[in-house]
Amino acid sequence: MVSDFTWMIGGPQGSGVETAANIFSQVFSKMGYQIFGKREYYSNIKGEHSYFAVRISDKKIRSSVKGTNMLIAFDAETIFRHVDDVLENGIIIYDSTLENMKISDVITFENDFKDRLENILKSKNKESNVKGMLELASENGVTIHSVSFRSLLTELSEKLENPRIKNMSRMFNVLGVSLSLGLLMIPSEKLTESINSIFSKKKSIADMNVSAANFAYNYAAAKFDEPNFKFKAKEIEENTLLVQGYYGTSLGKIIAGCRFQSYYPITPATDESNFLETNEILEINEDRPGSTLVIQTEDEISAIGMAIGSSLTGVRSATCTSGPGFVLMAECLSWAGINEVPVVITFYQRSGPSTGLPTRHGQDDLLCAINSGVGEFPRIVYASGNVSDSFYDTTQVFNYADIFQIPVIHMLDKFIASSVTTCQRFDETKVNIDRGKLLDEIPSDNYRRFAHTEDGISPRSKLGLENGIFWNTGDESDIQGHISEDPVNRIQMMDKRQSRLDYILEKIPESEQIVKHSEGDFCIVSWGSTQGPILDTIEMLKNEGINIGFVEIKLLHPFPKELLKKSLSNSKTIIDIEANYTGQLGSLIRQNLEKDPNYYILKFTGRPMTCTELYDTLKKIINNNAEKREVLTYGA
Amino acid sequence: MALKVGDYKTDVHNDWCPGCGDFGIVNAIQMALAEMEIPRHQSAIFSGIGCSGKTSHFINVFGVHTLHGRVLPFAQGAKISNPNLEIIAVGGDGDGLGIGAGHFVAAGRRNVNMTYIIFDNAVYGLTKGQASPTLKLGEKTKSLPTPNTNYDVNPIGLAIASGFTFAARGYSYDVRQLKNLIIAAVRHKGLAFLDVLQPCPTYNDINTKDWFSGEDRIDETTKKPMPRIYKLEDTDYDPVVHYSDETELNQKKTQAIVKSLEWDSKIPTGIFYKNELITPYTRRLTDKIPNYVENPSALQNISKNNVPITKINQILDSYKV
Q1: Subunit contact A241:B105, Cβ cutoff 8 A
Q2: A129 in helix, strand or coil?
Q3: Are A284 and B314 in contact (CB < 8 Å)?
Q4: What's the rounded Cα separation, in Å, for the pair B115 and B72?
Q5: How far is A252 from chain B (nearest CA, A)?
Q6: Residue A299: is it exposed, middle or buried by C-beta count within 10 angstroms (0-12/13-18/19+)?
Q7: How far is the C-alpha of A203 from the C-alpha of A286, rounded, in Å?
Q8: Do the domain assignments include residue B300?
Q9: What does the domain layout of chain A look like in residue ranges?
């Protein structure tokens, strides 16, 4: 029985690669398997290459692996880009009409890639076409199934007496996934069930796709040899969900009571706002329906400006963006800082600088999140490591914002946003709401918005509250909120705001600041979405009897210096792992612990880390033959 | 007990230059609030940056002094979240028509039910007199080293082109008319724009108070100055779009733009354009969220005894394997 298997499908953007992968993921999740899928795509609407790799396993998985066991290609580009990903004994199903396509026929290739590929084929004495590529795979022990997708459609069209079907190349995606399931001998009713659920809104389209799927399924079952891979349905673990990466923060916002989100479209952050708007009308316990107001603004400056304006009325408000949008928000962020306005910025990172790799993964905005803005003011920068964590963390960051009356920047990234994964159902009963010192009524009219208090945090009024009139200004202000340039007041106000950094470290429970997943002489320090590949790698090493420590830092600002010191006290070798070039967390560690991590494992190609390459690199470190800075490169 | 104008004044020291046109605007806002009897806690002044940005500190209602060019996003966020608030946004012409021009246009498209007043003096005062977006091409105010090389923006024209449903112009030395215009703007159902000509005595030595009142052009028969400013309400000009009809709408928009271009010898003030047939933003929201007006973001409960009350089980069920 197969316990770990990766299936990959590629095709031009707009050809339904994602739908095919969703069908595949649903089918296997319903067979009781754990799923981890990831989507890669260009910054493009139609035509550029995209692919989806779905990993399935009978145990918990949190990342992708290097390579795939099976590849489905209905365009030449997928073959050229991914044939060398197919592992030994793997399977390729491809459209036979592509056989004579040359590298030069694929107009979407970058010149560098074209040259690289041509040189490889030349050095191996292969023709620079699809045939040559497939010969390479074949020599590596890969089984190749050649099917004319076009002929399948023609036959189906004759069978159903529907001439339109003949030209429906947009069904190639469904043919591809159905051929795979037929070959792998997965019960066909699972396929039908999944297609019907995915196309549930359009019965006629569902029916047509089911016909095509069954046709392709039967074709594969009849024509292809039985594969080495065997799968058996298992009982589905109770309370399993199959979710997209951005569901965590979206649902977290809904349950936390975020009732206002303003945003400007940007990959990979937009999906969240879209989700909130799609589900804008809310079911409320024993009350009339509520709503999340989602507003698409003219730019990111307006997005944060509106969210702050909303927060002043007492609403839990947020915006959601990525790096290029976040930097535009810096001035308003400072304003929220000096005015002690709680606001949440959900920050789905991609890879910079500037627009960088707009649709690719990266963790290169940590220092930007910590440092952006004018002057000195307190903020929280908090990171989540996976979809499920991001749900609970989202509910917590709203509490932090309210309790400490500061902006909170919640860090996520493209890797999380565009992964599809099975996880335990989010537990609503674990969520609590703490609005801090927000007032609902003020009895008399001597209210002072920025009154000095023992903990430095003043009771908070809101626009519209009787007796609660206050002033805000981006200038330094007195306790009422009126402009003041008095030096003594300045010292008091700076102390009032900045003392919050220590207060935060004191108040937020340690387990929410740092998660110590495991202990060992070798200890990994990391943040955010690297959590998945790291935990998978640790498990792989554990199976060999090697224990590696892993400290995940969630609270990145203010930096939990003492707690980190304590967490690392038993470790001899510190390994910093991050998806950026310079090791930004590493620089925070150097700054705060006066200690440089012994090793850095970094990746900045825009492609997420796989557990396989992390495993290889950690082995090098353990065996003492690694460089101080190891750079990972895998992924097309 | 009815509130008096004095109740809307704070004791914050006003540091504008003596003779500044801004004083008239603050007075007019305070008078308008008192006359409309808007409770102090139900009103908020949002302001931008610069001399005009300080306005919110002088008025005894909620005051939110924001950032250069950003007053409209802040104000709209608050008004949309709590439609019960009466919000007046104020800012300079550089603030609203220079750095804030993108927000100005976008705000017009939304038509949120609030008022936006621009203090229009054609110069950047607080940074010592540089040219602002409303200074005419070729003019050289006191502190400019060379004449202005940019064409001027027509605020009324831009407002109408952007979708503002009320556009008016006031003059800061005619506080009575200005107060009435503010009241009309606040009562307007939709986004109201009010451009206030406001001489900067320190840096604009061209469009001075004397210039507006025509001290430089004496009528030969009466021997009196011939004021440049005249009031639209004293003419038969009709700014109102009376019915939903393309011809009517286009006629009222174009007449307003043409009227707003009058300058130099004759400068009109008053209401140029008013259209309540375009739905305000909150109404548009109720098309998709039927109870939004009664139950807007700011009035919704989100928890009971710290426990969330929003149900997500149905959404979660749909992802169940």
Answers
A1: no
A2: strand
A3: no
A4: 10
A5: 10
A6: middle
A7: 36
A8: no
A9: 4-223, 243-430, 437-508, 511-632
At the fourth CATH level, the homologous superfamily of domain A243-430 is Thiamin diphosphate (ThDP)-binding fold, Pyr/PP domains (3.40.50.970)
**What percent of chain B shows pLDDT beyond 90?**
98
Q: What number of helices (H) and strands (E) belong to chain A? A: 22, 24
Contact state of B74 with A470 under an 8 Å Cβ cutoff: no
A305 and B316: CB-CB below 8 Å?
no
Structural domain boundaries, residue B249? 15-288
Burial class (CB in 10 A: 0-12, 13-18, 19+), A377: buried
Say whether B298 sits in a helix, a strand or coil.
Answer: helix
Distance from CA of B119 to the nearest CA of A (A): 19
Closest by Cα among A605, A602, A613 to A113:
A605
* Helices assigned H by DSSP within A410-486: 414-417
Residue B1 — very low, low, confident or very high, per pLDDT cuts 50/70/90? low
Beta carbons within 10 angstroms of residue B123's beta carbon: 29
Provide CB contacts within 8 A for A288, sequence distance 6+: B291, B295
Strands B310-311 and A549-553: unpaired
Tokens of A40: 């890669």
Answer for the pair A144, A138: CB distance below 8 angstroms, yes or no.
yes
pLDDT tens, residue by residue, B60-81: 999 999 999 999 999 999 999 9
Separation between Cα atoms, residue A247 and residue A271, nearest integer Å? 9
Residues of B in contact with A475 (CB under 8 A): 65
With contacts defined as CB-CB under 8 Å, which chain A residues touch B300?
A: 257, 259, 284, 290-291
CB contact under 8 A, A317 and B66: no
Query: Cβ A240–B320 below 8 Å, yes or no?
Result: yes
Q: ipTM exceeding 0.95? A: yes
Q: Residue B199: CB partners within 8 Å, gap ≥ 6? A: B21, B121, B172, B173, B207, B208, B209, B211, B212
Give how far B43 is from chain A: nearest CA, Å.
7
- What order do you get walking across the sheet with A240-244 strand by strand? A143-147, A86-95, A68-73, A4-12, A49-57, A34-41, A419-424, A240-244
Domain membership of residue B131 (yes or no) is yes
- How many domains are contained in chain B? 1
Most A CBs within 10 Å: which of B46, B62, B111, as the mutation test of the A interface? B62
The pLDDT, as a whole number, for residue B79 is 98
Q: In 10 A of CB A375, how many CB atoms?
A: 9
Identify whether B307 is part of a domain.
Answer: no
Q: Which two tokens stand for residue A423?
A: 């996880």
Secondary element (H or E) of residue A56 = strand A49-57
Which pLDDT tens digit goes with each residue over A287-320? 999 999 999 999 999 999 999 999 999 999 999 9
For position B278, which CATH number holds? 3.40.50.970
Q: Is A431 exposed, middle or buried (0-12, 13-18, 19+ CB in 10 A)?
A: buried
CA distance, residue B214 to nearest chain A CA (Å)? 38
Q: What is the pLDDT of residues B138-183, one digit of tens each?
A: 999 999 999 999 999 999 999 999 999 999 999 999 999 999 999 9
* Domain covering A511-632 assigned CATH 3.40.50.920 in the classification: yes
- Give the 3-state secondary structure of residue A86: strand
Q: What is the pLDDT of residues A462-516, one digit of tens each?
A: 999 999 999 999 999 999 999 999 999 999 999 999 999 999 999 999 999 999 9
Which residues in chain B have Cβ-Cβ distances shorter than 8 Å to A460?
none
Say which of B64, B70, B314 has its CB closest to residue A312: B64
Three-state secondary structure call for residue B178: helix
- Region A4-223: CATH code: 3.40.920.10
Q: Does position A84 have pLDDT exceeding 80, yes or no?
A: yes
Tell me, yes or no, if the two domains A4-223 and A243-430 fold the same way: no
Q: Name the token pair of A260.
A: 């206002």
